[in-house]
Specification:
single chain; about 190 residues; seven-stranded antiparallel beta sheet; 18 strands
Length: about 190
Amino acid sequence: MHSRYLISFLYFLGAHSFASSRETGLQCKEVINGRGILLTHNDLELTIKNSRRLCDSYFTYEEIALPNKRCLITSWPTNEELGLNAQRDLFVAPSRKSEAVYIGAIPVDAVAISQNAYRNITQSGGSIYETIYIISESSIETKTPSRELVISDSLCVYKKESDSACQTITGTFDKPLCLYDDGKKKDLERAI
C-alpha cells in the first residue's frame, strides 16, 4: 500500500520536474574562423558573432515575451569559470532563424520568478541581499529599490525614505532589519 503512494509521488514529482523546465539545450558549432557560433535545435538556427563564449559553454534557449515573442539564449559558464561570482551570459534573438545579440549577464544562481525576471539571493558580511533582474529586448536592468536583510551588523539608515539624516541601527539574527536600497540611501520604510 505504501509503495503505491511512493510510486504516485515519484511519478508526480518527475512529471512536475519535466513540465517545469522551459529551457532546451542547443547544438553548437564554431563558424567564421572561430569568431562566431551557430546554435541549432530542430527548426531553430541562431548565430552569435564575436561571442565571448565558444562551444565549450553549454547553451540553452527558451521563448519569452518581451513584450513580443523572442528567443532568450543562455550561455552557461564552463567548469573552469564556476565560482562564487560565476555569471551566465544572456542573448536575445528576434526570431528562430536570426542573429542573437548579447544583452548582459546575471549570476548563475539567479532563479526565474517570471518570464522576464530573475531573483538572486546572496549573503555578504552581516546581510542577506535580494536583487531582481528585469530582462528586456536590449538589456538587463536591476530593479530598485533592492532589499537587504541585516542579520549581524550596525548601519546608518534612514527610518523613512523622506528623512534627511540617518541613524545607526543594529540588526541581529533575532531582530533583523529589512532595508530598501535605491543605490543612494538605505531606509526602513518604503512604498513599493
